[in-house]
Amino acid sequence: xxxxxxxxxxxxxxxxxxxxxxxxxxxxxxxxxxxxxxxxxxxxxxxxxxxxxxxxxxxxxxxxxxxxxxxxxxxxxxxxxxxxxxxxxxxxxxxxxxxxxxxxxxxxxxxxxxxxxxxxxxxxxxxxxxxxxxxxxxxx
Length: 140
Description:
The chain is an alpha+beta fold and 140 residues long. The chain contains 3 helices and 7 strands; from the N terminus they run αβββββααββ. Strands 1-4-5-6-7 form a 5-stranded mixed β-sheet, with helices on both faces. The protein is globular and about 55 Å long. It starts with 5 loop residues before the first helix and ends in a 7-residue tail after the last strand.
């Protein structure tokens, strides 16, 4: 079974909520340190991922809302690092200070399902955690 990235999960989630979503992250195939080797095959690692404005993996909007949302997707483990990266970014600060613009960090974790009897199942499912970045967060 193919591994689904946090970015792909986030895109699916937003589309299921009626958002029109575009991917803004891309891979520059010519970037990357030539001295790093792939652990699996031993070849040089080539290419570096780049986000829009240094943090956005997606841009999204809904026809029935005024907001345009920049979205950072990640794992639960990296949520705080991604939030800090955004809060240290001058473009992010300028983005959220404008009317009708929003930034959201969406992180994913696997959690056990709860059975009808209240016990945890062995089956785990992916659950998102959505955090909206507000202008006030830049002042802290």
